[in-house]
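Hey, quick one: can you model this chain's 3D structure?
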Amino acid sequence: MVTQSLFALSMLSLFGRQEALDFLSNSSADDLKLVGIVALWSGLAVNCVAPYLQVSGQQAVGPARAQILYASQPLWAAIMSFFLLGEACGIEGFSGGALFLVAMFLAATAENPDPNCPAKECEV
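Sure thing. Here's the predicted structure for all 124 residues.
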């Protein structure tokens, strides 16, 4: 988080110094408070907590199942946009999402390969 903050401040001083000074000189206390809250949220929740939870979870479930979850990100984004933003979804979207959920379930419930398998390939 510190590295990213230092990088952001250095880029701001190189490329946006005048704009930042103009913003700070013309901002109210509420504007600055909002910028501080957003900066803290971005620094702590997005760049510290989320990667920590991601790596911890990835170690717990293993790489194959973690990849299944990562690959499902567009599906969950579409579901959330449908419910939260009222996005439209046609029959192709619903059937594609259902097929993806079935494939994800089959992949997640498949047997793990035997680590002591004597054959060259031991995939199930």
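One thing worth noting: The CA atoms of residues 41 and 114 lie 44 Å apart.
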